[in-house]
Amino acid sequence: MISWCAGILSSLLLLLAPLWAWAQQDGIFDEYRAMFGDDNPAVFVIDEGEELWFSKAGPNSTSLEGCDLGLGAGVVEGAYAQLPRYFADTDRVQDVESRLEHCMIELQGKTREEIHAKPYSLRGDLGTEMEALVAWLAEQSRGLAIAPGQAHPSERSSYELGEQLFYFRAGPHDFSCATCHGQSGKRIRLQSLPDLTAHEGAAEAYSSWPAYRISQGIVRTMGWRMRDCFRQQRMPELIMGSEAAVALQTYLAVNAAGATMAAPGLKR
Questions:
Q1: CA-CA to 128 of 20 to 30 Å: which in 4, 22, 218, 260?
Q2: Are residues 141 and 81 in contact, defined by beta-carbon separation less than 8 angstroms?
Q3: Which residues form the domain of 104?
């Protein structure tokens, strides 16, 4: 019986070997994405985000048109590409999600608890307000250069903190972000892992988020991606818009500076 099972297993391995070798080729998911052409389902989420930006909401029945993302109230073109950055009105470095949270509270009268109740959707959901807004804002920077702020001391401090967090090892597996993303030529199963410490790898990753995840049927933001990395490391949950979340995104954005924004992207 054991011999028969071993024979079946060997035959299966021989049949699957060519497929496995094909899947290991670099860029195979690029070919997969190319088959979609310009058909990115994120376009529907982008439309929703635009509608949400101009719609009156919250206790104040106000739209987000007066939200200052760093280029002036209501200016959205190119704003995403220049985040994270320092904002004098909050005396903080903020990413797109924490800045939207600020505007929702100050302009629309929403509460922090309400915004944080469910900023990211679960599998099978239709998506959240935050995800739709981020997708639309990212699309307003598509084709522009990534240029996060680094002139203010707080911006430089945020980058330094992000670098420290990137290499910080903790959790039951003693992992850090650098465990998977600290060198080139690595992969997990069929997934290639970009080196986020190098410009090329950081540019490839940062420029393509937010992205539509085909396997999940949802648009995911860079903030969600950071939080999911923490989950996979078995670290405490990364809070949306927290100093740590913003610092990690600052680290990636600065490493990717000069690259062209291509988000919303398309991921497996």
A1: 260
A2: yes
A3: 34-267
What is the per-residue pLDDT across 183-226, written as a single tens digit (0 to 9) for each? 666 666 566 788 899 999 999 999 999 999 888 889 999 999 98
| Domains contained in the chain, number | 1
- What are residue 92's DSSP bridge partners? 87
| Helices within the chain (DSSP H only) | 2-23, 28-34, 42-54, 96-106, 112-116, 129-139, 153-167, 177-181, 199-206, 222-232, 243-255
DSSP state of 217: T
| CATH for 67 | 1.10.760.10
Place of tokens 């049949």: 15
Query: 229 an active-site residue?
Result: yes
Q: What pLDDT is attached to residue 35?
A: 53
SS (H, E, C) 35-76: CCCCCCCHHHHHHHHHHHHHCCECCCCECCCCCECCCCECCC
| Residues 6+ positions from 38 with CB-CB distance below 8 Å | none
Q: Which two tokens stand for residue 2?
A: 């054991």
Is 52 part of a structural domain of the chain? Answer: yes
Give a yes or no: residue 27 inside a domain: no
| 186 part of a folded domain | yes
Question: pTM of the full predicted structure?
Answer: 0.84
- Catalytic, out of 5, 103, 180, 229: 229
Please give the mean pLDDT across all residues of the chain.
Answer: 86
pLDDT for 21 beyond 50: no
Residue with token string 């028969």: 4
